[in-house]
Specification:
It is a single chain. The protein is an alpha+beta fold. The protein has five domains: 57 residues; 43 residues, no CATH class; 177 residues, Ribonuclease H-like superfamily/Ribonuclease H (Nucleotidyltransferase, domain 5, 2-Layer Sandwich); 70 residues, no CATH class; 80 residues, no CATH class. Helices cover 42% and strands 14% of the residues. It is built from 20 helices and 15 strands. The longest helix has 17 residues. One of its GO terms (biological process) is DNA integration. Pfam families: Mu-transpos_C_2.
Length: 524
């Protein structure tokens, strides 16, 4: 039986005078196959001159009509429908194969396996010309992008939550991937993610292929030169790479990144959907663990894994990293030092030396540090609060004047203040803290109660607290203030007379005489 022998080549060699034995040796075919081909050509009256302009498949079909054309044993899927459904969100070939298999089972006909399903769909796509094949070379490019879906981190102390975005990078040849969580998508964060990416890969490539986001690409005209952000261009120069953004509205220019973004969305977010992360570093560590497993997972349709292909074929071709890490910094100019010796930055406060109170200073923000500069010199430095933290104070003791060392309120300080007011006030403050989950949640309500002693007096606040405790378990500011405003704390519970006697002039209405006075006057 002749099975897809190169019939046209057999006729070409025979026309040059080669024997059947020589043709078989030259083509690596059996002598019987060569003889069958020459016999079929003789029976059909076909010579090499007749088929010189035809391709090998046509020549084979001419000499052996109907051979190797067997009806399929399995039901053929509607590939047009399959291709259309794949464009919908969340639809995969595995899902479509499962639906195809269920329909075959329901009709009682045999179904093909998943591997054959994928191969036939790819053959159909190639025949339709729906997509074009892009040749990938090892160590030539890195594709980067932001993932659409997000994660969350929740502060265990305050309960505050923050959105986390995923930066994704991939080496197209090996599909070796990198994922970095970030609390925003600003320019400085974009650059820091690139620095972390290069350190993860251990080198750089001649090309860097991002999307046309404004944090990296200022302008990408159809005709003309691409205009990059200055700091993005500086980063590219530092790592000896050229930024070549994908064409606008052409995601297939970086299909590896697009595919890895999908995997990051489905795998990372899906795997961590039931986990609660208290901080960005904790989430980053979890993603690193997932990446190690993801990159080491064997390919389904070829030998090796992302990690093995990267280490064996791609890592040796990467450009070595420079000796000095690219420093991503952000400057904020002309910030005034407030009277509390602190400078505001993104809803938090950082201390500066008290000698600069009222002056303008500059703030230099690094990846994890915040520095305060004045007159060209650094005057203070602090750890940078995470993006989701609000209204926190970072204070260096040396920045405050010696006579008044400022300190952020805590439960201990609040209770000490309440003790100076009186036992009833201490009970009110203590019950406020007992009613909340975290001490920080009780600071505001407790301080609101204690500050009533400034508008009135500590003695009156103590009396108001004692009066309120008689009718409720945990009174707060909204119950105590009306008592003080109306003077109810001055009234005696039993007689209705004033607790201070006739000579007390502290009330807003002057002297108040009790019922006994008017009762005696009536008797006279």
């Amino acid at each position: 039986m002749v099975r897809r022998i190169r019939a046209k080549k057999v006729l070409a060699l025979h026309s040059r005078g080669l024997s059947g034995r020589a043709i078989a040796r030259a083509l690596g075919a059996s002598r019987d196959s060569v003889s069958a081909t020459l016999r079929a050509a003789a029976d059909a009256g076909v010579s090499y001159a007749d088929v010189a302009d035809r391709d090998d498949g046509e020549v084979y079909a001419m000499l052996f009509p109907g051979r190797n054309e067997h009806p399929g044993a399995y039901r053929q899927p509607d590939w047009t429908m399959v291709h259309r459904e794949l464009a919908r969100t969340g639809v995969t070939l595995k899902l479509l194969h499962a639906e195809y298999r269920d329909s075959c089972t329901a009709d009682g006909v045999p179904s093909m396996g998943y591997d054959r399903f994928c191969k036939l769909y790819q053959a159909w796509v190639t025949a339709q010309g729906v997509t074009s094949r892009v040749e990938r070379k090892a160590g030539a490019a890195i594709e980067v992008d932001w993932a659409g879906p997000t994660l969350m981190v929740v502060d265990p102390v305050t309960g505050e939550s923050a959105t986390v975005y995923l930066f994704v990078a991939v080496l197209p040849f090996s599909r070796y991937a990198f994922v970095e969580p970030a609390l925003d998508m600003r320019e400085a964060t974009w650059l820091r993610c690139h620095v972390a990416m290069y350190e993860w890969f251990g080198g750089s490539t001649p090309r860097l292929v991002p999307d046309n986001l404004k944090t990296g690409v200022v302008r990408h005209p159809r005709d003309g030169e691409i205009v990059l952000n200055d700091r993005y261009r500086a980063l590219a120069d530092h790592y000896s790479t050229a930024v070549l953004p994908a064409r606008v509205r052409h995601p297939k220019d970086k299909p590896s990144a697009e595919n890895t973004v999908w995997h990051a969305t489905m795998a990372v977010i899906g795997a961590m959907r039931d986990r609660v992360f208290a901080s960005l570093p904790e989430l980053r560590d979890a993603i690193r663990e997932w990446l190690a497993v993801y990159n080491a997972t064997p390919f389904q349709k070829r030998e090796g894994s992302r990690l093995s292909v990267f280490e064996q074929m791609e890592k040796p071709l990467l450009t070595p990293l420079p000796a000095i890490r690219f420093d991503v910094t952000e400057w904020v100019y002309s910030r005034k030092v407030q009277a509390n010796c602190h400078v505001a930055y993104r809803n938090n406060w950082y201390s500066a030396p008290y000698t600069y109170v009222g002056r303008k200073v500059d703030v230099r923000v690094c990846a994890d540090r915040l520095e305060i500069w004045a007159d060209g010199e650094r005057v203070s430095s602090h750890p940078l609060f995470p993006e989701h933290v609000r209204n926190r104070y970072a204070t260096n003791a040396g920045d405050l004047p010696g006579k008044a060392k400022w300190r952020q309120w805590d439960r201990e300080q609040v209770v000490q203040w309440a003790n100076r007011v009186g036992p009833a006030c201490t009970t009110v403050v203590t019950r406020i803290f007992e009613s909340v989950r975290f001490d920080e949640q009780g600071l505001g309500p407790a301080l609101a109660v204690l500050r009533l002693s400034r508008a009135h007096s500590a003695q009156r606040l103590e009396s108001a607290c004692a009066l309120a405790l008689d009718s409720m378990h945990s009174p707060r500011y909204r119950q105590l203030k009306p008592i003080l405003d109306n003077g109810n704390d001055r009234m005696d519970d039993n007689t209705g007379g004033h607790t201070g006697g006739d000579n007390d002039t502290g009330g807003p209405g002057g002297f108040v005489r009790g019922g006994d006075y008017y009762g005696k006057a009536a008797m006279r």
